Structures are given as structure tokens and as C-alpha cells.
Amino acid sequence: MPVTIARPRSLRGEIIAPGDKSVSHRAIMFNALSNTGTAHVTNFSPGADCTSTVEIMRALGVEITREPGRNGMGDSLTVKGVGLNGLKEPSDILDAGNSGTTTRLMSGILAGRDILTILTGDDSIKSRPMGRVVKPLTQMGAVISGRADDTLAPLVFHGGSLHESTYDMPVASAQLKSSLLLAGLRADGKTTLNQPAESRDHTELMLTAMDVNLTKTGLNIVLEPSEIETVDVEVPGDISSAAFWMVAGITHPDAELLIRNVGINPTRAGVITALEMMGANLTLINEREVAGEQVADVLVKSSELKGIELSGDIVPLLMDEIPVIAIAAAVADGETVIRDAAELIVKESDRIHASVTWLNGAGVDAVGTDDGMILPGGQIIGGGQFQSFDDHRLAMSLGVAGLISTDPITILDPDVAGISYPSFWEIIKDLGGIVA
Ligand code: S3P
Predict the structure, then answer these.
(1) How far, rounded to the nearest angstrom, does the alpha carbon of residue 413 sit from its chain's CA centroid?
(2) Going by DSSP bridges, is the β-strand pair 165-168/94-95 parallel, antiparallel, or unpaired?
(3) Distance CA 255, CA 178 (A)
(4) pLDDT one-digit tens code per residue, 200-216
(5) How far apart are alpha carbons 399 and 230 in whole angstroms?
């Protein structure tokens, strides 16, 4: 059912960020491959994407229990490790749903095994580039086939045996590097990766905590094949989910929002840097470390924003947040130029096209380019009815727009937010935002 959001007079409250999606996937996958026992994972991401990972691991014979969390925290899970070579052949096709992380990381896990597996997902997944993992995994010795000359899902993993390899990654992608590192655990020698720029490093942090011999020197990563140890993971809050409230708080004229338990790992926190560059009234409080990841509470207040240029190495550190940063840029004083973000085109939707289309539809001047967007700034966001392009981050960006637009914004397909943040609309309502 559609939802309509109208601007509340003021925007005040406290929000607990839901468990981080990237860390949740990894906590399940890596512990499933451990050989030392049962791991406890708490504050697990409530989104459908991470449930896809749980279901796939169960289909591969991993015992996973799941109970609701307490005091507003995400679910608590246990995962019984089967060891690096203990996955069982599934009786059916594995379904990653909408999750690129599941598809690409599982590809590294399924590559070069003596079981036959077939991995697919929804229409978005079936259109996203998988050749970027298939090609290097094949070079390592895996036998994989897929549609469109082995570049699109469904992907079929036939076996093979994995060898020592060195790979110069053509894109800064955490999913690609994680996929190759996971395959490298079972290779007959070292896996060396050269990254063009840094991307989120949850895989490196968690594998290191699991006693894997992984060395990082600048952008170069070397992993020695090894068994992995079980670790309990308390998942930090998801900065990508928190970013919606950050932008709402700084763009609404009478706002003060406290977002609790936000993971601020420096390889994820590009959005904080960008909003600070724009002049956001944003304060990190109670900074602490949770399970090897940095966490803070984020206080945001109404701000006078200015346009900025976003390009180069910061871009992979805020890629998922660009659709909502575009809202801050639209209303900021002066032009914002976003470059070096061509990866946006191959996310859950083409996020350059999707963002520019809805912004233009709401009366905002914005132009898409080959690798980003140009937003002249100083704009007023009007209202209207919009589709989310079947993209959770677009749907939630439209929700934030509705909190500050002159006229109500109707999102025709709001349920897609459940991919990462099922309670998003309830929170908008608690903040006084939903009219229908
Ligand atoms: C993710 C990596 C990012 C991000 C995605 C989650 C991950 O993609 O966009 O939502 O958990 O590894 P890249 O592979 O492009 O870095």
C-alpha cells in the first residue's frame, strides 16, 4: 500500500540504528565456515537481505537459530560452524533475493567445491554484473557458468580447485574483495589483491579477529589459506540506515535527532565527512568500540548547508548514501558535483537515473552524468507520487524528502524498504511524518 509523507512542523526524537547489513552477512557466513564451535550473533540486521544469507546457509546444511532481540535490539542468532569444507550439496537452487552481498560473497564461498550449487536472485540481481567475481574466481581455478557468457546470474558452481593468485581489482568493491578472500581461504597458496581504492573493510577486520593470517599494506591485501575460528559478533548499528535520519535532521528547519548506536568504521563513514563538509550541525557522542568496530551516537540539528564536490577516494566510502546525500545537496546553498560514482549505475537500481528522475519530478533541478550528478542547489523540493525503482534506498530517500518537501510525497511501493530497514516507515510515523 502506498504511503504519503507530509512535513511535520518539527522533527525531534531518538532513533536506534538497526544492525548493520554488511556486518550481519559476514557474521553468519564466516562463522558458518569456522571449525571451532557455535557463534552468537546479536543485533542482527532486520532486513530481508540478511535473511537471504541465513536461508542459503541453512540450505547448505548449517544449523542456525534465530530469536527476537531485546530492548529494541535486532535478533540474536547462533551459528554452528561446519568448517571450511563442510557445506552440503543443497537440494534446490539458492535464492539470494535482492542481495548483491549474498550473491557475490557466496560466489567466493561456493567456488571450487565438490558440490554442485546454483545461485540466483530477483530481477535486480539477475541484471547486476557478476562477471566481476566470476572472472577472477575462474582464474583461481573455479569452474563457474552463468547467463550472458558467465556474467549474469543464475550462476552455476561446478567445482574445480583453487590456486594461489594475484589480482588487480578493476573496481573498488568490498563485495569483490570479500568474495576473492573467502575463496582464498581454501586455495593452495596466497591470495594477493591490489585495490584501486579502499572500500569497506569489515571482511578484513572479521577474518583477522577469526585468526586468519591477513596482511594489509596500503591498498594491498595478502591472505594465507587457513582454517577460521568462531567469534561472537555484536553487530553495530548501520550507518547506511542512520544516514536517512542524518539528512532529515540537517535539512528540516526545526530538527534535533539523536541516532544511537551508529557504526562509524572509517571505511563506511564517508557520509559523515561529506555532511560535515556541507556544514552540517552533526556531533558524534559517546564514541566507543563494539566487537572491533567503532560506534557512536550521532546528534544532528537543522543546518545551513552549502554545496560541495564529492569525487575520488571518498566516493566508495559513501556510495550507498549518495541517493540521500543528493537531498541535502538539492537544498544546500550552491552547486554540488558528484563524480567517480559510476558504480551507482549497477546498484539495486541505476541510482543516478533513479535519483535524478524523482528529483526532477519533485521540481528539483538535477542532472545525471556518466559517473555522478550535478545539483545546482538552493532548490525547493515539491511533492508528488513516485515509484522507488524497486530500490530500498530510493524508497527511503523519498521518505526523507517527504519530511522536508513543500507538498506531500507519496511513495507507491514503500515495502521495498524492508530489504534493509523494515521499521523505517514506523519511525517516520513516530516522527510525525505520515499522513496516509
Ligand atoms: C557491500 C559493499 C558495497 C555496498 C553494498 C554492501 C558489502 O558494494 O554498496 O551495499 O557488504 O560488501 P561494493 O561491493 O560496490 O563495495
Answers:
(1) 20
(2) unpaired
(3) 39
(4) 999 999 999 999 999 99
(5) 39
**Residues facing residue 410 across a β-bridge:** 4, 385
Task: Say if CB 389 and CB 412 are below 8 A apart.
Answer: no
> Does one domain contain both 165 and 37?
yes
Region of 178 please: left (phi>0), alpha (psi -120 to 50) or beta.
alpha
The yes-or-no answer on residue 390 being catalytic is no
Q: State the angle between helix axes of 351-361 and 392-404 in degrees (0 to 180), rounded to the nearest 10.
A: 30
Report residue 290's pLDDT band, with 50, 70 and 90 as the boundaries.
confident
Residue 231 lies in a domain: no
Tell me: do 302 and 334 sit in the same domain: yes
Nearest residue (by CA) to ligand 1, atom 3, is 174
For ligand 1, whether the C-beta of 103 sits within 6 Å is: no
Q: Which of 201, 297, 320, 391 is catalytic?
A: 320
297 lines ligand 1 (CB under 6 A): no
Q: Which of 25, 173, 394 has most ligand 1 atoms within 8 Å of CB, for mutation? A: 173
State phi, psi for 390 to the nearest 5 degrees: 55, 35
424 lies in which domain range? Answer: 3-18+236-435
160: confidence class by pLDDT, cuts 50, 70, 90: very high
pTM attached to this predicted model: 0.98
Q: Is 228 inside any structural domain? A: no
Q: Report whether residue 101 contacts ligand 1, using a CB cutoff of 6 Å.
A: yes
Please indicate whether residue 169, judged by its CB atom, sits closer than 6 Å to ligand 1.
Answer: no
CB 195 near ligand 1, within 6 Å: no
